[in-house]
Amino acid sequence: MDPVALATALAKPIVAQVGAAAAKGVKARVWGDPERKALERALRRALTELNRSYGDRLAEFDVNDGFWVHEGAPELAKVLVPGVPPSPVRLAERAVDSLGRADSDDERYDRIGLLRPAFKALLDGLAAEVRREATLQGMLGRSDAASTAQATTRIAEHLGAVDATDDDRVAYLRWLIDQHRYLRTVGVVRNTTVQLPLGEVFVGLQAQRDRNPGDRARAWFERERERLAALVAEGTLDHTGFEAALDRLQTEYGHRFAAETDQPARQPVLDAARDAAQLLVLGDPGTGKTTLLRYLALTHARALISGEQVQGRDALFPIYLRIGEYARQGFSKMGIGEFLPGQLRRAECTLPGLPDLLRRQLDAGRCLVLLDGLDEIALAELRRGVVTAVTNFVTAHARQGNRFVVTSRIAGYQAAPLPEPFRAVRLQDMDDPTISRFLDVYCREVERAETPGRSAEATRLAGAREATAIEQALTTNAGVRRLAANPLLLTALVLVHRASGRLPHRRVEAYVEVCNALGRTWRSAQGVAEADLPDERILTRWLTELGWWMHEHRPEGAATRAELLDVLGPLWAAHQGTGWDPRVLEAADPLRTDAGLGVAEFVDKADTHTGLLVERAPGRYGFAHLTFEEYYAGRALAFRGSATDRIAEIRRRLHDPRYEEPILLALGLIGTDYVEQIDEVVAKAIYPAEGNPSPYEELLGRDFLFMLRVLADDTPLKTATIDAVIDQAVDEWFDQEHSRCRFSAYRAALSERLGALGGTKAADRFRAALDSRAVPAGDTTLLRWCQLAAIAGRLGALTEPTTTALTTLATTHTNPHVQIQAIRALAQHDALTEPTITAVTNIATTHTNPHVQIQAIWMLAEANPLTEPTITALTNIATTHINLDRRIQAIGGLAAANPLTEPTITALTTLATTHTDSFVQIEAFRVLA
């Protein structure tokens, strides 16, 4: 860039722009030769300084003379037009857009951010150089009055009272994007922080409307709440106890009235945030409440800059605030509106016109206000005051059309709830597609951070392999899949997989490894000092005792510090080598005693560094997820007392729904640590319970069905024990006239439990049991044998004898119902051969019973992927069958292919374009569309 030549070239278009501004109402100026030369001198000096300071950066982005003359001149001209401030952001946007379309919005924003300082320096420098030229000062009428105005502006900037410019607005949005662009998390490699692109990794969870004022159970809840408030007023209940009692009341409220009203419908939480003017989002720790608000801030800021919409609506001006910051720094002095500018400045958002910008946007009703962490306030009185401040702020700005989203943990919320018209929703667990999307991005980005030397393609492939491996492990293990429903726990599973290269097959092993990773190995790998971590000698022991007590006594999942001292105090005393004195609990301040301080130190370290124990509400603690509480309760069942004690405790709680998971985990732990005891424990505590079965076991079979759950966990039982259970299940299935299988509910439950044995030793024994039995005679018994074979087929490849027998039945048996059941079993593991397809095609085209025809067609359609013979068979049915409904069903069968393959598309296209029946054509067109 030659500043002299460029200054000469720029002077003409700038003068033209100033003339155009004059035509729009700005006072016209006469530009003679002296004025033009003065402008060239000012431009030359400003451009020379720009070239000296930013020449390399401008060259990197190909900001050349052509850009300045064509795209840059209109913005530079604003320096000479009174009342029209130039914008370095707009100048940067024009420069970036002149380069062509960026690969992503992030890349465009980054380029704008890199160029903005250069263009701001140029505009400020040009304004200063123009003021140095007396000819221009006189021509523009900028003498002493202009200098006074500039001085006044500088004073206003210092006082934070300057008017906001469009540049301030864009700069604020850029700052907000930079604040929320990445989700920062830890990796496995020491001292690595993985920055995940939030726009890609955000998982759109489902939310369910919370039971709220207006439902018929609310009156009962409010009466109970008033009774507790009276106890607080009397001094017989403190505020922490009041909150704990409210949480227990809320838990009972959900159970007590669950059957009286339908469950509210679920919807994506982003839809709830779009539709509700005032939304409260409730969720347990680790469910993504903060991530949701950060994602909303990011997407709306990006959309405002790019001029796009968000979910079909105009983008809003986002304002994000952690409520805890207001409670700590501003609550006693000012309202939220007054607090916001100062808090943003403390976060390095240093814009001269920030207060005016926020005020104007709120007054115009264009804001999306995001208030994060209503629960993160320790003192109950302070929390109520902050809720009042939030309510006042919302009331003051809601009528203008602003929208509000507030987040809170569930525990403790009822002690200081937000009033109507806030609509409350609860975040739900992640579903399979959400888990898959999260794993794809998370695994790739962790790989990128921890192996920076790899190529982009190698990183992508390695991340995809890991994500696929984890998904497959989740598919085959329902217990581990349950852990993955929570974003925090899914992250822990990824860390376990990266550390060991696998996820344990047995669910109990997965729990052990996840808890070990969260409890110690993860944070040690991150470089956390040993002194800052909870004592490894006591961590598992103390959490086991706490998990047992909380599962038994605190269904809401939170305990006060005093309750923690009551539970853990005896363990602390034993660790110190002293006896426990329960009178500690009667001290004036038991939490300040040696025992109280010792337990508090453990709890604080566990809360800060493990991710297992968290402060669920101010002053009250619980496990980060119910699964952890269940695991440690299961450890207590497995290891407390003698074998006789364990059997008695398990048996007593066997069919209590809250203890189903702890019992299964306990049996897994016993099978790992006391393998010589496990068969006896199962026989006495579960099945056959040696003369002590559950009531009506001969009709309900609850003990037996639970025993199948034990087998599904791959508990290391003797082969003889497994065979006895499998043989009984098979015998009952065959004898449906006299066994419990005469009841349809039991039969369905038995089928479900057998179908859950995949990947276990019991699944192998189930397939062996089918092989060991001769193919029965009689159509009814044959049907049942085929049904069992279909269940076994879902668990893995059938053995050769079973496959051969099924193929014979499918192709030669005279009863089409038996044929279809045999084909269904073969289809479970893609064993449909061409003769089998021919047999089922004959049934579909020649059988007189339409129901049988429909079943046969769908047997063909269920083969996935559709093979050439199957496509041919379905196409022939769609083309030639005498019944129009059967033709359309065959087309539907072709459509069932996922994804549609080229042969399937060809077949459908032929039907749509050449068939003589318009109904067939229309249906084929619909499927293709």
TrEMBL record:
<dbReference type="InterPro" id="IPR027417">
    <property type="entry name" value="P-loop_NTPase"/>
</dbReference>
<feature type="domain" description="NACHT">
    <location>
        <begin position="277"/>
        <end position="409"/>
    </location>
</feature>
<dbReference type="Pfam" id="PF05729">
    <property type="entry name" value="NACHT"/>
</dbReference>
<dbReference type="Pfam" id="PF13646">
    <property type="entry name" value="HEAT_2"/>
</dbReference>
<dbReference type="InterPro" id="IPR011989">
    <property type="entry name" value="ARM-like"/>
</dbReference>
<dbReference type="InterPro" id="IPR016024">
    <property type="entry name" value="ARM-type_fold"/>
</dbReference>
<protein>
    <recommendedName>
        <fullName>NACHT domain-containing protein</fullName>
    </recommendedName>
</protein>
<dbReference type="InterPro" id="IPR007111">
    <property type="entry name" value="NACHT_NTPase"/>
</dbReference>
